[in-house]
Amino acid sequence: MSKTTYDEPKSAKGPLYYAYKVFQYVFLLILAAISVMPFVIMIVNSTRNTSQIESHAVSLIPSHYLLQNFKILGGKAFNPWVGFMNSVIVSAGATICTVYFSTMTAYAIVAYDWKLKKPFFTFIMCVLMIPAQVTSIGMYQFMYSIGMTNKLIALILPAIAAPSTVFFMRQYMYSSLPMEILQSARIDGAGEFRIFNQIALPMMKPAMATQAIFAFVSSWNNLFLPLILLTDKAKFTMPIMVSQLNGDIYKTEYGAVYLGLLLTVLPLFVIYFLLSKYIIAGVALGGVKE
Amino acid sequence: MKMKKALSLLAALSLMASFTACSNTSSPAATDPVDDNSPADSAPVDSEEETPSESTAEETGDKKELRVWAFTDEVPGMVQKYLDTHDLGDKYVMKESIIATTDGAYQPALDAALAGDEVDMYAAEAAFILKYSQGEAAKYAATYEDLGIDVDAKIKEAEIAQYTVDIGTNPDGKVVGLGYQATGGAFIYRRSIAKDAFGSDDPDTVKSEIGPGWDKFFEAADKLKAKGYGIVSGDGDIWHAVENSSDTGWIKDGKLHIDPKREEFLDLSKKLMDNDYHNDTQDWQEAWFADMAGTGKKGVLGFFGPAWLINYTIAKNCGREVDEATGEVKAEGTWGDWAVCEPPIGFFWGGTWVLGANASPNKDAVGEIIEWITLDTSEEGLQYMWANGTYNPDNATKDAVASNVVMKKSDGKIDFLSGQNMFDIFVPANEFANGKNLTPYDETINTAWRDQVRQYTAGNKSRDEAIADFKQAVSDQLDIDAE
Amino acid sequence: MKSAQSRIKSISNAKYGYLFALPFVIAYLIFHFYPTIYTTVLGFTDCQGLNNTEWHLLKGNLFENFQRILTNKSFINSVKNTVIIWIMNFIPQITLAMLLTAWFTARRITVKGQGFFKVIFYMPNIITAATIAILFHALFAYPTGPVNDLLVRNGIIEASYNFYVKKVAAKILVAFIQFWTWYGYTMIILISGVLGISPDIYEAADIDGANGMQIFFRITIPNLKTVLLYTLVTSLIGGLNMFDIPKLFLNGGPDNSTKTASVFIYEQAFAGKYLYNRAAAASMLMFVVIAICSAILFYLMRDKDAAALAKLKKQERKAAKKRGTGLQGGF
Who's near B68: CB < 8 A, 6+ residues apart? Predict the structure, then answer.
């Protein structure tokens, strides 16, 4: 990944070069501002009260109503921690399922030769195209009939079959899983499961990490299935809780609504900024290679 | 190795979160799961355990849960109050599920919960009560008799408004739901603006300025416009008056039917828009509330609404700020600048009906609470407190209630209306309240209708197109064809 | 395939292939395949009404639901909306992502603070769509929301603009939110694709004296084909299933202009009259649309060189396995 900086352009240092650089940075900064601005407004407004927001909805100067907004929010039976914990359970569970079993499935395709391998891969590619919404009606009826509505597990187990992750892992394995190491482990008499868990899996870490992040984020943000399957307030995930902030019982308290949004985003912000370097680098490491 | 780091960080964070949650007493479900389902625990099988429900059971101890579903915090608040002040509170705790009706989110969730036998008691609004009392969801509602209420005698004794009873009666003729409010509508206006435009803020003067009939109403709008005011905030304000003054509902003999009075709403709305008689707000949106505090684009004279609109909405949004600790009033907003008078046309709007679930294992408790809310006429009954502003001392507004007996012994003078007795207006208005123009699908159909009317008034399509598209939308979404 | 395999291992190992793929297959069959079949079947039944458990195959016209959906103007309209919104979001998104990728992977004129920009650009993607929808709803509120406040205060427009009654404005906003959420993700994927291209090719180009533009268009883009296809297909599938933002931002309005197919299906099935059979039929039709679109994309993006190359690689791989050496020898 090291950048080759030795060949600085010989000709380019003219005014055109600087104009280009200025344009580039101005453009990037504007883009960065657009990405950040909504969150800034959200954070600032969560500290302001309703009448301040009503008279001027944009301000960069925080006010002192944070505590009051918090009280209002608490009084409306909005409990972000319940949603947060449910979301953590679902997302962590789903991520582990997705990453582990997808790697396993990809390994089955890459490391072994079996008769149905090719049809199986084609099949996965087709499955990749069936979106959750298409099957949701049947999914709901099915979950309802086996009494799995209002169970978080109903949102975790389906994650075992994650075609796009399998696709990604397969691509990565083909380029980065040295078969001879597996072979030599086999000669040493290691069992196939041990080879997978202790040799192949650690080598797949960069790709797994990448997929783990994507899986976690998409599971965390999933609204459609939880909305259909969960009706018990104690089981609500974060997105459902957030979607209710739009309801008319909150409508009148803008400061509190912004604060509610902030609370739902805060954990993500914390995780993201702690891991951001790693996330970006991880993504870059495990790019889709052919 | 990085993976592990990431995961342990996640675990640490979630642990942190759970500690914070511990100190937060109102989150029974949040504490336990972490121990069992720590994300760092890489064996996926572990996450199968469903701990949250256990911990909820533990927390509640011997007390049984009363599962209350509602679309605002109003009914759960009443249940809580009953549990706090009566012996029943020793045996039960409330577990409320509040889902706003915005975007139609309440009904699907409630339906699923009812089907799963996860509800003890639930609330329904006028826009969809028929579905739960007479329509396809009526099968989930327990009759009041079943809940142990001597309902027929009690209704007579309390002189409950007849339309409340009619709407809450199932096809077998049994009462399954009753409301606690009376929702006859009035025109609720700003005194200062009336004085400026009409020379007087007296209800009788204002009444004859804005009505009767829409023609007089628009004459008044002209006068207000000359002074730089709007007459209402948005077209939604007159919609509620139009909707519930019409003779027929949306569905007649299984077909979509547009009552002439409802169709006229297109023209009324257009007129408001073209002449800039309002602030073009949408009800329950930010700008609508701003007009209650007088901070909107231009001052507006008033709102169409029943007593609950004052109590539940306008008073809360009038911009009054009271320091919680000292009780000192920091800002008055429009508090005290309001009065009510007869509207140009009689109407009613909304109302909440309370139902008990057939499958509830706690029918006695549900019956006890429902009786207190809907049929108790004593001074300790909900309706008396509701009508006299003693229910919630922090928010001492009053509301018209369903029991005539209670109304007779209550007094509707409030500071918010500068001492006017609002019951003088609201009690006679109740004669316009009836259930004959309600249908089980009003919420969905109204949404489609209002949407098309807005398209027409915004100049995006012709009147005929709007009607045609409305019919199409209803047929597509509900499989109900137009006549 | 079977012939060129090392004889001893293939026999003993084949069963592990099946075994390792088993969890996926089981979970797939239970949680995805069965519901899919269930949904398909429902499309041919009279299953309507709240939690209806007694439904029957349609007598007479078995395809009635499909016909009703295909003649349902709202459905046709919702499919159109979905496609329009997706295109309005995807074209700027991929263009911007490409531009940023070109900048961030440029080898001559490097951009300082790349890490910072990448982190910021990717950030919206991790935020819950529900949060974003509600946040933007508040931001564009009429007449007193932050955006209107800014525009009016700075004299850009005279009076507040009601974004929420104009069909085109609403569509653009939904597309913009999608764009805003996803361009960082696409950028990261593209960058990782570029980093995956062998440095040898670039060195060769440098030696040949190619300039930055030439390198980007002649080397980077052709080599990115697989990644671009991946992006395109996943974005298309995601786009055709767009639900959270249209649903929560304006609930499909105004005048159904942001009602996507998924929102339509949701409304048919879970709101109003619980027309499960119609919703199921609409779902299957959507699936067909997605499958056709993906197939077309695959076909268009497939180039013969790559196909030939893949074949060659496969042979190489087989040969390599035969010799007992790994492919490309790891990193």
Answer: B75, B76, B79, B94, B95, B96, B97, B120, B121, B122, B123
Contacts of C255 in chain B (CB under 8 A): 451-452, 454-455, 460-461, 469
pLDDT digits (tens, 9 = 90+) for B255-305: 999 999 999 999 999 999 999 999 888 888 778 888 998 888 889 999 999
How many other β-carbons are positioned within 10 Å of the β-carbon of residue C61?
10
Nearest neighbour of A156 by CB, restricted to B14, B47, B97? B47
DSSP state of B32: S
CB proximity list for C33: less than 8 A, separation 6 or greater: none
Domain residues of chain C, as ranges? Answer: 1-42, 61-323
**Contact check, Cβ <8 Å, A247/B321:** no
Q: How many angstroms separate the CA atoms of B34 and B378, rounded?
A: 49
**For chains A and B, what is the number of CB pairs under 8 angstroms?**
161
Among B363, B382, B408, the domain boundary falls at B408
Residue B173 belongs to domain spanning: 64-182+350-408
Residues B372 and B438 in one domain: no
* Separation CA C69–CA B387 (nearest Å): 50
| DSSP sequence for B425-443 | HHHHHGGG--STT--TTHH
In a domain, B363, yes or no: yes
Q: Which long-range contacts (CB under 8 A, 24 or more apart) does B376-383 make?
A: B376/B158, B377/B157, B377/B158, B377/B403, B377/B405, B377/B406, B381/B406, B382/B78, B382/B81, B382/B82, B382/B180, B383/B180
Q: Give how many domains chain B has, as a whole number.
A: 2
Whether residues B94 and B153 fall in one domain: yes
CA distance A209 to A214: 9
Asked if B107 and C271 come within 8 Å (Cβ–Cβ), the reply is yes
Q: Could you tell me whether strands B92-98 and B64-70 are parallel, antiparallel, or unpaired per DSSP bridges?
A: parallel
Alpha carbon A70 to chain centroid distance?
27
**Beta carbons of B3 and A81 less than 8 Å apart:** no
Assigned CATH topology for domain A86-238: MetI-like fold (1.10.3720)
- Identify the bridge partners of residue B403 per DSSP, sorted by sequence position: B160
Residue B329 contacts A, CB cutoff 8 Å: no
Question: pLDDT digits over B141-182, tens only?
Answer: 999 999 999 999 999 999 998 888 989 999 899 999 999 988
d(CA B219, CA B209): 8
A284 dihedral zone (left: phi>0; alpha: psi -120 to 50; beta): alpha
Q: Is the pLDDT of residue A171 over 80?
A: no
Phi-psi region at C67: left, alpha or beta (left = phi > 0; alpha = psi -120 to 50): alpha
DSSP labels, A187-202: HTT--HHHIIIIIIHH
Half-sphere exposure of residue A94, counting CA atoms within 13 Å on the CB side? Answer: 25
B21 — contact with chain A (CB < 8 Å)? yes
* Residue B230 to residue B303: CA distance in whole angstroms: 11
Tokens of B243: 């909707």
In single-letter form, the type of residue at position B342 comes to: E
Q: Which of B114, B281, B447, B476 to mutate to test binding with chain C, by most C CBs within 10 Å of its CB?
A: B476
For B92-150, what is each residue's pLDDT tens digit?
A: 999 888 777 766 678 878 888 888 888 999 999 988 899 999 988 899 999 999 999 99
Query: What does the pLDDT average to over C245-273?
Result: 86
3-state secondary structure of C66: helix
* ipTM, two decimals: 0.79
For residue B415, give the nearest of B340, B338, B342 by alpha carbon. B338
**Cα–Cα distance measured from residue C179 to residue C177, given in angstroms and rounded to the nearest whole number:** 5
Residue B468 resides in a domain: yes
Helix axes C129-139, C167-195, angle to 10 degrees: 140
The CATH class of the C61-323 domain is: mainly alpha
Question: pLDDT by residue (tens digit) across A129-140?
Answer: 676 666 777 887
